[in-house]
């Protein structure tokens, strides 16, 4: 039985307020009821709703019937909770938060409780990068026969047209956009690796745990080569790199250091990093964050 009011965090409300999708708005209105239904069905006691929380899900801190702490996650419809559940089942707590229960109808996930206020971003940059590399390495496992996950080729193909369209409005970045699109076309065909990847890996998604020092959360799982996953880590906290002296050389050293540490081909990591930097940078500009977007494009140019 709930012991506190169930109210969606303001960050979640704000992130969906501009979404014209009526399904998202309907889900938001029904969210308190959906949470209460899961609490009742799984015999959970609500401690509090986690805030500020994320932009695509509500997380509530709960206790199970035996008093064990856990976290209840309710994602926005279409946010890929089934894929998250499938990936967490494959990892079974190895390098990632452990999935305790899931519900296909609501997309709800019951997860082991981590220290949500303590992520790798709380560490100095060099130490955080080292711990992040060790964590992501654990996640790179075979996806299993008949797996349900999309491939890197499929995911990036779906994004290519959006990049081409958005890039047309950032004329100064036209050469970078052209190079990124060419890399997206060629890179998937150049690798036969088939690892289960986190898909959205960054330091902020690695939280402190009890049974292990650091565990990954919030995957957007995809199957493909490790360099695609590692590229996101190269870009993580890129502002720290750009703020220092010799930033361009430091960016290239980061690529080389991570590639060598995790036995990934340097050139392929460089190419995937350039693609992901351009793709993200152009989308940031299109979304109105021109400063961050242009910094990402400058980072890509250094590579």
UniProtKB/TrEMBL annotation:
Coiled-coil parts of chain: none
SUPFAM superfamilies per the UniProt record, alphabetical: Protein kinase-like (PK-like)
Signal peptide limits: none
Pfam families: APH_6_hur
GO annotation terms (biological process): secondary metabolic process
InterPro entries in the cross-refs: Kinase-like_dom_sf, NH2Glyco/OHUrea_AB-resist_kin
UniProt GO MF annotations: kinase activity; phosphotransferase activity, alcohol group as acceptor
Keywords for the protein's UniProt record, in alphabetical order: Kinase, Transferase
Name of this chain's protein: Kinase
């Amino acid at each position: 039985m709930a012991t506190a009011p169930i109210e969606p965090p303001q960050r979640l409300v704000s992130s969906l307020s501009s979404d014209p999708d009526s399904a998202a708005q309907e889900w938001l209105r029904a969210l308190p009821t959906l949470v209460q239904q899961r609490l009742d069905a799984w015999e959970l006691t609500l401690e509090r709703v986690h805030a500020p929380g994320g932009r695509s899900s509500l997380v509530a801190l709960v206790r199970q019937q035996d008093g064990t702490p856990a976290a209840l996650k309710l994602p926005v419809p279409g946010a890929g909770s089934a894929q998250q559940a499938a990936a967490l089942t494959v990892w079974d707590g190895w390098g990632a938060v452990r999935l305790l229960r899931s519900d296909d109808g609501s997309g709800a996930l019951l997860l082991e409780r981590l220290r949500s206020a303590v992520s790798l971003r709380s560490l100095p940059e060099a130490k955080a990068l080292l711990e992040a590399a060790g964590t992501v390495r654990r996640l790179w496992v075979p996806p299993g026969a008949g797996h349900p996950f999309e491939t890197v080729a499929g995911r990036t193909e779906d994004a290519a047209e959006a990049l081409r369209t958005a890039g047309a409005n950032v004329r100064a970045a036209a050469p970078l956009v052209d190079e990124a699109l060419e890399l997206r076309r060629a890179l998937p065909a150049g690798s036969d690796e088939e690892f289960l990847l986190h898909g959205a890996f960054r330091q902020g998604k690695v939280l402190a745990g009890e049974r292990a020092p650091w565990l990954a959360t919030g995957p957007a799982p995809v199957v493909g080569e490790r360099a695609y996953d590692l590229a996101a880590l190269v870009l993580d906290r890129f502002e720290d790199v750009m703020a220092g002296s010799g930033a361009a050389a430091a960016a290239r050293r980061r690529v080389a250091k991570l590639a060598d540490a995790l036995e990934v081909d340097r050139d392929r990591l460089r190419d995937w990093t350039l693609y992901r930097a351009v793709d993200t940078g152009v989308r940031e500009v299109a979304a109105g964050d021109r400063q961050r977007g242009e910094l990402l494009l400058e980072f890509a140019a250094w590579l």
